[in-house]
């Protein structure tokens, strides 16, 4: 996904001279295409993430649209105060590209697992947070947000399968603040996911539907704005809402969904599938880690089956 996103950035830069790309000495398997094509608009600041944001903030004040690239865990925590007091405070169009959310850098261990970035950034109400589900979604998110006045954080996966179901739902504009729904509008089980794990949610939905359980998948692609009304509508009348994210359960997608259901008085039961505790001592492929922490289609189906067998039907929606 990140390769397609950077390729799209190069195409945007070809027609918009405001676009510049900065990196903190990372990304040299995907940023060459931009650096070679626009050498005067590419800056490597070295391993200095706070300086990275400071430079980008100054460039944005001078009329540029700087895109800054780093691994998500480094970009979200090392320069956080600089992001808050720079582009967020002054509402400048700095674009943060955090690659490798969740367990994408699985072999790097806990220092490279980005499991809190959404929680950190959605706490800033004037920072748009965008989580594309696949490469086409990512390309569209870039083009559609170019004219946003304030800062944007893109959580861009290193890779990920194309999600065929999204093709018929995506229009010409990125659905900022909207929920895309794959499946029936009034399901018994509503699966809500974001990023590449949407593919796992779609697989789980197919399996549950085959077993006679009406299931839909809500695709969340943004926070600030978050699709509050759409989530509430999908949950209304559902017996079970299940969130799925490659992130800590605290502060991310599951927490946002819980806030909506609590404030709207929904009778639906919510199960939040995410990472429960710091994964100390774990490394391996993303596939291994997602399976180890129960973030796969099989885990979703098992959780849904277990809950439906033991819980009473929800109260009718009022």
Features:
318 residues, alpha/beta, Rossmann fold, 2 domains, seven-stranded mixed beta sheet, five-stranded mixed beta sheet, 13 helices, disordered C terminus
Kindly describe this structure.
The chain is an alpha/beta fold and 318 residues long. It folds into 2 domains: 2-156, Rossmann fold (3-Layer(aba) Sandwich), CATH 3.40.50; 172-310, Rossmann fold (3-Layer(aba) Sandwich). It is built from 13 helices and 12 strands. The chain has helices at 2-15, 32-37, 49-61, 72-77, 80-90, 117-122, 135-144, 164-167, 198-210, 228-235, 253-264, 286-292, 297-310; strands at residues 19-23, 42-44, 65-71, 95-99, 128-130, 152-156, 179-183, 189-194, 215-220, 222-223, 240-248, 269-275. The strands form 2 sheets. Strands 2-1-3-4-6-5-10 form a 7-stranded mixed beta sheet, sandwiched between helices. The protein has a 5-stranded mixed beta sheet with strand order 7-9-8-11-12, sandwiched between helices. Helix 1 (2-15) packs parallel to helix 7 (135-144) and helix 9 (198-210) packs across helix 13 (297-310). The chain is globular and about 60 Å long.
């Amino acid at each position: 996904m990140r390769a397609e996103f950077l390729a799209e950035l190069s195409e945007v830069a070809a027609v918009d001279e405001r676009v510049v790309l900065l990196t903190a000495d990372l990304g040299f398997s995907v940023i060459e295409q931009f650096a070679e094509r626009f050498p005067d608009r590419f800056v490597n600041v070295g391993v200095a993430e706070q300086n990275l944001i400071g430079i980008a903030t100054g460039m944005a004040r001078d009329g540029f649209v700087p895109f800054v690239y780093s691994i998500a865990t480094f970009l979200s925590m090392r320069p956080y105060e600089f992001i808050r007091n720079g582009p967020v405070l002054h509402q400048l169009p700095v674009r943060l590209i955090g690659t490798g959310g969740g367990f994408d850098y699985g072999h790097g261990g806990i220092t490279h697992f980005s499991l809190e970035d959404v929680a950190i950034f959605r706490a800033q109400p004037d920072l748009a947070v965008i989580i594309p589900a696949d490469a086409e979604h990512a390309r569209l998110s870039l083009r559609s947000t170019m004219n946003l006045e304030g800062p944007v954080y893109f959580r861009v996966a290193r890779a990920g399968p194309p999600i065929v179901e999204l093709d018929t739902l995506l229009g010409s504009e990125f659905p900022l603040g909207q929920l895309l729904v794959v499946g029936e509008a009034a399901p018994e089980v509503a699966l809500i996911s974001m990023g590449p794990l949407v593919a796992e949610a779609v697989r789980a939905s197919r399996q549950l539907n085959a077993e006679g359980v009406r299931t839909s998948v809500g695709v969340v692609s943004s926070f600030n704005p978050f699709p509050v009304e759409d989530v509430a509508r999908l949950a209304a009348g559902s017996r079970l809402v299940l969130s799925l994210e490659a992130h800590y359960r605290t502060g991310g997608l599951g927490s946002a969904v819980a806030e909506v259901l609590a404030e709207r008085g929904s009778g639906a039961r919510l199960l939040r599938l995410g990472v429960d505790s710091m994964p100390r001592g774990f490394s391996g492929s993303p596939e291994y880690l997602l399976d180890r922490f129960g973030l796969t289609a099989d885990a979703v189906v098992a959780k849904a089956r277990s809950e439906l067998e033991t819980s009473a039907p929800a109260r009718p929606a009022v």
